Amino acid sequence: MAIDNAVGPVLRMCEEVDAVVAAIRDDNPDTEIEVIDRGSYVRVQATDKLVVTEATLQEHLGGGFQIRSLEGMLSSFAGRITTSSDRIEWQTGASRKTAVR
Questions:
Q1: CATH number of 6-91
Q2: In this predicted model, what pLDDT tens digit does every residue of 32-72 receive, in sequence order?
């Protein structure tokens, strides 16, 4: 499946990756989401916009999980990223892929 205007995170492979993907799916219920497992990383993408909230991440990863912990799991992303204290959003715009270090 090829997604037009694909946006979303590229997550380093870790124990929490399945729970993060589940949280992203929950926060975007009417969105077709593609998950590509490349072994050492997982690309999660959708068309135009993708969101994940701290509350949903906590449902899947435990109440102590903080949104800033997700940023440490990102190796890259597609689209423009907007972060706040309780959510991360990827959307089309100045489309570029940027490594997070």
A1: 3.90.56.10
A2: 999 999 999 999 999 999 999 999 999 999 999 999 999 88
Q: Do the beta carbons of residue 88 and residue 52 sit within 8 Å? A: yes
| Residues 81, 60: Cα–Cα separation, whole Å | 22
Domain boundaries, the chain: 6-91
Which amino acid appears at position 25 of this protein?
A: R
Q: What does the DSSP 8-state code read for residue 19? A: H
**pTM of the entire structure?**
0.87
Rounded to whole angstroms, the Cα distance separating 67 from 2 reads: 29
